[in-house]
Write a structure and sequence with these properties.
The chain has 14 helices and nine strands. By secondary structure, the chain is of the alpha+beta class. The strands form two sheets. Strands 8-7-6-5-9 form a five-stranded antiparallel beta sheet, with no helix packed on it. It has a four-stranded antiparallel beta sheet with strand order 1-4-2-3, with no helix packed on it. The chain is globular.
Amino acid sequence: MATKTISIDQLRVGMYVAKIDLSWFQSPFIRRSLLIENADQIDKLRRAGARHLVIDLSRGDDIETSTDFDTPAAPHEIQLSATTAPFKPVPKPLTQLNEEYAQARVARKQLEQAVHSVFSSISAQGSVDPQLAAEAVQEVTIVTRTLPNAAVFMALSQQRAGDSSLSQHALSTCTLSLVIGQSFGFNPLELQELAMAALLHDIGLLQIPASIIQRSANTSHPLSRHERETLQSHPRLGILALERQGGFDTRVLQMIGEHHIRLDDSGYPQGTRGEFTSERSRILMIADYYDELITGFGGASPLAPHQALQRIFRESQDGAFDQVILSRFIKLIGIYPIHSRVQLNTSEKAVVTELNPSTLHQPVVTITHTPGGTETPAPLIIDLSDQKNVTPERTIDKVLDSPEPAHPDASRQAA
């Protein structure tokens, strides 16, 4: 295999990367080798801090110039490359972020209608309309490929606290699963199957008595053992319903059946082994659980995004979730997602405008309001990870609620 070591600045579309100078946790790609097919992949590597890469000349293009690390070079040239400062993210202007968010909000309404049609059809006919489901999946796929992940994520997650809508949960879980799956480089068929499973993963709940679902949200009166077992049977009920109907791939059914199986075997159905679950089932498991945490499904108090991620991270350390997938998920959305409104320890209010891949707890923020609450004359951009000779050093004190109105919808038990 003919290889060559190049700098990140020499990386071009058409090259085949055989090795990256990043650990698995830092790398934006799960695969350690890949063909560079678009500029976005290069940007992700740059933002993750990659400096040098090894390309496979037998599987991809070579660089057009002779300036590389395999040819003789002056010592000062190599030293310059080796000491180049790590890439620093450049935040988008607030006006651009606001425009992207507005587009994502419009897209959310369209997706809500598509997904609601799927579940309305299930309620009316007692079965899934494959055409409606496929169209909904296609619309979600288009949105996740055309709009920035940050804007889509924020548009879907805002004002979800206390929202027990089955269709909203299905939409968010489907979208999050797709975003994660795309980052792993799954092919179109794999993504379509993952999205379909995520969209329909909870349809078994439609066969659970409404009284049990309502009681599950009442933490002061725990479910009886029989009621709990009935509620936990919804993955199996969903699979049986789709099997009777026919037309759904076994891989889709497998993911639906596995979305509550923890890797430490603490999930359900009992007696199943988490170590045998598929990678896509593990993605669905994390996306589903995350959305449940931020909405407070089951009567729990809704958590802010960073609190939900912290909760899942702790449980992953105990073996419940796939740490590689969770790490990718956290890097995609950030501990404090872009568009988040936050208050700093200085009492200033700000908006998170860019993530720092190596220090996710210290994003780039744009200060919009002074400690007294008045708007700043000109937005001040602060990289919380780079505050040399700054006193006091700014940190995020708390996440503020979005001022946007909630979107009412039907309850989880009624689509």
